[in-house]
Design a protein that fits this description.
Shape: globular
Oligomer: single chain
Number of helices: 8
Helix content: 55-70%
Radius of gyration: 20 Å
Order of helices and strands: HHHHEEHHHH
Number of strands: 2
Distance between the termini: 43 Å
């Protein structure tokens, strides 16, 4: 009887370890975040989620992925670094931004209401990429920005639609440099994707059968 109990206990521990390992693999950032083809080969369902968001909201895969690259480096539970008190002690975080997209809580709730996706989570990749595509779609309409204009879309993402329309970024040289960086990353992703997307589309179509 004691042997059976020991075997059951050991089996439970093994299952828990396996579950923890699989969960870690599912949420760990991609090994090569600068190569979109490598990302999508490693994260099997990410291309499908990014492509679905593009088809729904008209925001290119390369653009939405470049946003996530900048905001969190694809870390699912990313948060802004804490401020410092007296240059030594950790203080509060500057905002409640969280997850892949670093969306603020109020902005995320606005997305949930607008899309009726009340179960969406900021640390879920599919929800995060859909959020970015939705936000860019809103920016295109409210700020008159073209869907492929990553530079201005990122400025609107950072400043908010009202801030962008007031040109609140005008004297923020550092922000404009970041927007240029995001635009360059998007162009890089776009070139890379052109070399591997046909295979990714075939895999998406095949997986869609099941």
């Amino acid at each position: 009887m004691q042997k059976n109990n020991n075997h059951r206990l050991a089996a439970r521990w093994i299952l828990l370890l396996l579950a923890g390992t699989l969960a870690g693999c599912a949420t760990s950032p991609p090994a090569n975040p600068d190569d979109i083809c490598s990302i999508f080969r490693e994260k099997k369902d990410w291309y499908g989620a990014a492509k679905d968001a593009e088809e729904k909201w008209g925001s290119p895969v390369a653009t939405t992925m470049a946003f996530l690259h900048q905001e969190s480096r694809f870390v699912h539970d990313a948060k802004p670094p804490r401020t410092k008190i007296l240059w030594i002690f950790p203080g509060p975080r500057p905002s409640d931004a969280y997850g892949y997209s670093q969306a603020l809580g109020t902005t995320w709730r606005g997305y949930q209401r607008a899309t009726f996706n009340y179960g969406a989570d900021r640390d879920d990749f599919e929800d995060a990429i859909d959020f970015v595509a939705w936000y860019n779609n809103t920016s295109a309409r409210q700020c008159r920005i073209k869907p492929h204009d990553t530079y201005h879309l990122y400025l609107a993402y950072h400043e908010g639609h009202g801030g962008f329309n007031r040109r609140s970024f005008r004297n923020k040289t550092w922000l404009k440099q970041v927007a240029k960086k995001v635009s360059a990353q998007s162009n890089k992703y776009r070139r890379q994707l052109a070399s591997c997307e046909s295979g990714l589309k075939r895999r998406k179509k095949f997986l869609g059968i099941f």
